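Researcher: I need the complex structure. Ligand is cytidine-5'-diphosphate. Inputs:
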Amino acid sequence: MQFTVAIDGPAAAGKGTISRALAQEFGLAHLDTGLLYRAVAVKGGDPVATAQALLPEDLARDDLRSLQAGEAASRVAAMAEVRAALTEFQRSFARREGGAVLDGRDIGTVICPQADVKLFVTASPEVRAERRWKEAGEGSYDDVLAQVRDRDARDQGRADAPLCAADDAVVLDTSTLSIAEAVAQARALVAAKLGR
Ligand code: CDP
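Model: Output:
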């Protein structure tokens, strides 16, 4: 069976949590595509050459999750040639037997426009900044909010594959939802599509 779930949205909207829950519930493979851009940024060198030579084990590095890595990732992610170098890996992951969930910024719009289920997970910048600030356990909330706004502007404003909801995506605003509520809504959509 091939079955692709595309989950897009801005930083800290809840994509990762929802994707992992869906993958577990429905036995799907999961790719957090942000890790590709994070790995390119953290490995350094010429970003295009690094993206072309990226290996699956690079995604397992333990230094990819920091706020700085996310910031650096959004800079290399604005380069069209970097995105092009990472496209086929994502598409072949999406086609794998047994089905897959991919989360990122352009999965429903560019990488997998034919995805079976498309979700655009979002939340207000204030709510997302508060989540990131609590996760980080350090720094000031105002600084994190400024970073969230900057990253949104960069991701939405870039010329190539800007962050936006696909026309046929279901928008899930998690600003006032608990994790369990958000996951339940996403699960219902996938279950309906799979006929379960
Ligand atoms: O976890 P968080 O949402 O903060 O970030 P991420 O999903 O790991 O993505 C980090 C950065 O990579 C984003 O700000 C985007 O600029 C970029 N990215 C992208 O352009 N396309 C994707 N499919 C995934 C991430």
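Model: Summary of the prediction. The first helix runs from residue 15 to 26.
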